[in-house]
TrEMBL record:
SUPFAM superfamilies: Ribonuclease PH domain 2-like, Ribosomal protein S5 domain 2-like. Its main location: cytoplasm. This is Ribosomal RNA-processing protein 43. It comes from Polyporus arcularius HHB13444. GO terms for molecular function: mRNA 3'-UTR AU-rich region binding.
């Protein structure tokens, strides 16, 4: 009994030392660390190359917003709130409102981000998100018109990352679309006599929703390995990232690439598109269903 009892702490210490050695090696030689895992057809977090992390979508958690959503993609967690204001439309687009998406990656969500003004990464992601929201027509800007040439709605779709573990683009797009789907606005009419917009205090109406886009991002490592849903450890080691956006019917909306050219070109892109549609069909077809 005494021998068995003394063996347990020793075994525990050995396991802790092994874990510490692995962590040290990971930090000092991250690329080699990843290569050794991929050589065994597995990733450091235990997933296969084409395996996606679990996802959850919860809506309506911010009572002060006109619409909101919280999304968890693995350990990556983002929260989105929609706030509406009334403004005058642009002269050349008198019947179109505005959709203004923004992503904040604060220092609190990851050691890789520092306090201060928005990072380049956050600005690039915000621009990409705006492109997808506009091209997909998730909320037709014409539906935000209150009175042509006089008053339209401006929707500020602000998202903050609470915890960053990679693939913020996919998580943020999910949160933004779910929050827009959750949004209601007060019924508004334009009073011509007083030249002002009057909003009802009792009647609220949901947004007119078009297509519902979902993004599926892949990291290309060493020109040959295609890794679905890359983590924050994998991202800095990737040659390029490919994001495939499909709508709620499985139709292709866009394919975006960031980084170097892809070895294999069209074959790799086709592989990513097929994998994205497969994931949508088998796991995320109804991801906005509860919204």
């Amino acid at each position: 009994m005494a021998a068995a009892a003394s063996a347990t702490p020793s075994g525990s210490n050995s396991a802790e030392q092994d874990a510490l050695k692995a962590l040290t090696f990971q930090r000092l030689h991250p690329r080699t660390y990843l290569e050794r895992f991929l050589a065994e057809n597995v990733r450091p977090d235990g997933r296969y190359f084409d395996e996606w992390r679990d996802i959850s979508v919860n809506v309506g958690s911010i009572s002060t917003a006109d619409g909101s959503a919280l999304v968890r993609l693995g350990s990556t967690t983002v929260v989105c709130g929609v706030k509406a204001e009334i403004a005058e439309p642009e002269l050349d687009r008198p019947k179109d409102g505005f959709l203004v998406p923004n992503l904040d990656l604060p220092a609190i969500c990851s050691p890789k981000f520092k306090p201060g003004p928005p990072t380049d990464e956050a600005q690039v992601l915000s621009d990409r998100l705006n492109e997808v929201l506009v091209s997909s027509g998730v909320v037709p800007t014409s539906s935000l018109c209150i009175e042509p040439g006089k008053a339209v709605w401006v929707l500020y779709v602000d998202t903050t990352c609470i915890n960053y573990d990679g693939n913020a683009f996919d998580a943020t797009l999910l949160a933004m679309v779910a929050a827009l789907k959750n949004t209601t606005l007060p019924k508004a009419t334009y009073d011509e006599d007083r030249h002002r917009t009057v909003c009802s205090r009792k009647i609220r109406e949901p947004l007119q929703i078009g297509r519902l886009p979902t993004s599926y991002s892949f990291g290309i490592f060493d020109g040959t390995h295609v890794l679905a849903d890359p983590t924050s450890f994998e991202e800095p080691l990737l040659d390029t990232t490919v994001s495939v956006v499909v709508d709620n019917n499985g139709g292709l909306i866009s394919v975006m690439q960031l980084g170097l050219g892809i070895v294999g070109g069209d074959d790799v892109l086709s592989q990513c598109i097929d994998a994205a549609k497969d994931c949508w069909d088998k796991g995320r077809r109804d991801v906005y269903g509860a919204s």
